[in-house]
Design brief:
Strand content: over 45%
Radius of gyration: 13 Å
Distance between the termini: 40 Å
Largest sheet: 7 strands, mixed
Number of strands: 11
Low-confidence stretches: none
Mean pLDDT: 95
């Protein structure tokens, strides 16, 4: 099993920045990628960004490209999401997730952290 704990959410004004962290513990040796997802009230959960542990390759949703940056620290088993130029529409609960291979969907999920962007 893998446990994921997010932190770093909060309230910020539009145009501001936040950095989210996702710390993994447990069977972290079996990991392929960690992703960030978000869910706004009344909306479905959506993909935000992903990073592959082995080579650091990243991918982003079009809505956050150029504003968000995902990175990892192998020594700390932690993935970060640097969010800049935040907009009110970025308001959501942000979740990190982990999948053990490229052939499976995300298997492990954190509890989520609230990000609120005021206008």
């Amino acid at each position: 099993q893998v446990q994921l704990v997010e932190s770093g959410g909060g309230l910020v004004q539009a145009g501001g920045s936040l950095r989210l962290s996702c710390a993994a513990s447990g069977r972290t040796f079996s990991r392929y990628a960690t992703g960030w997802f978000r869910q706004a009230p009344g909306k479905e959960r959506e993909f935000v960004a992903e990073i592959i542990w082995s080579d650091g390759v990243t991918s982003y949703a079009d809505s956050v490209k150029g504003r968000f940056t995902i990175s990892r620290d192998n020594t700390k088993n932690t993935v970060y999401l640097q969010m800049d130029s935040l907009k009110p529409e970025d308001t959501a609960v942000y979740y990190c997730a982990l999948r053990s291979t490229r052939w499976v969907p995300y298997q492990y999920w954190g509890q989520g952290t609230q990000v609120t962007v005021s206008s």
